[in-house]
Amino acid sequence: DVKVTQSSRYLVKRTGEKVFLECVQDMDHENMFWYRQDPGLGLRLIYFSYDVKMKEKGDIPEGYSVSREKKERFSLILESASTNQTSMYLCASRRGGRYEQYFGPGTRLTVT
Amino acid sequence: AQSVTQLGSHVSVSEGALVLLRCNYSSSVPPYLFWYVQYPNQGLQLLLKYTSAATLVKGINGFEAEFKKSETSFHLTKPSAHMSDAAEYFCAVRLGDSNYQLIWGAGTKLIIKP
């Protein structure tokens, strides 16, 4: 079974803090994704990475950056957290050539 | 532009009744379609997928979906609802001929009445 893990299930941070969300997958998947999920809006893609050190912006990249130094790990960085970044963050991975994505359990981030 | 529409943000059915969750899509290329389920405070789990083989697709937990090209639909059904089916369900379609991205519906919360 594919396993995608995220570093925290719940996180509370203050406005202006730098926040790191970590995601690790154990199935040697080439592609990894970061989404945020808000009620009524479904999933919105923040960034994705199709290979190590490669990244592309998704639909809502403003205020976020990412890092992928190793194939199994994809980090999401909030440079200066703001209250409108309070959300559920979901990481996913996918094998190259396939379309289905496999998700981690999510990190519920609250910025106060 | 491509889109995915899920009719009904909330659907309520009685335990033992038929579950029908609706998904319509627009796509300029042959679609690949997915249903995912999200239980409270968890990530998304793949229920089933359509990738241009059989139009009736069977998934986990007794769910199935039928691809209807003429109706641009991919509705999710289950003959008899269980309390454990209470969750949020998401429909997704491959973005164009993208190798990477999916377009997501807004989700439908399934409520099971005892």
A few lines on this structure:
Chain A has 112 residues and is mainly beta. Chain A has no helices and 11 strands.
Uncertain parts of chain A: none
**Sheet/helix structural class of chain A:** mainly beta
Count of discrete alpha- or pi-helical segments spanning 4 or more residues of chain A? 0
Please bin the fraction of helical residues of chain B. Answer: under 10%
Strand elements of chain B, count: 11
Give the overall form of chain B: globular
Which structural class matches the secondary elements of chain B? mainly beta
Distance between the termini of chain A: 37 Å
Question: What string, H for helix and E for strand, traces the elements of chain A in order?
Answer: EEEEEEEEEEE
Strand content of chain A: over 45%
Rg of chain B, Å, rounded: 14 Å
What value does the Rg of chain A take, in angstroms? 13 Å
Quaternary: heterodimer
Euclidean distance between termini CA atoms of chain B = 41 Å
Number of strands of chain A: 11
Element-by-element helix/strand order of chain B: EEEEEEEEEEE
Rounded average pLDDT of chain A: 94
Strand content of chain B: over 45%
Describe how the helices and strands are arranged:
The complex is a heterodimer of chains A (112) and B (114).
Chain A: E1 4-6, E2 10-13, E3 19-25, E4 31-38, E5 42-51, E6 54-57, E7 64-70, E8 73-78, E9 87-94, E10 102-103, E11 107-111
Parallel strand pairs in A: 2-11
Antiparallel strand pairs in A: 1-3, 3-8, 4-5, 4-9, 5-6, 7-8, 9-10, 9-11
Chain B: E1 3-7, E2 10-14, E3 19-26, E4 33-38, E5 44-50, E6 56-58, E7 64-68, E8 73-78, E9 87-94, E10 102-104, E11 108-113
Parallel strand pairs in B: 2-11
Antiparallel strand pairs in B: 1-3, 3-8, 4-5, 4-9, 6-7, 7-8, 9-10, 9-11
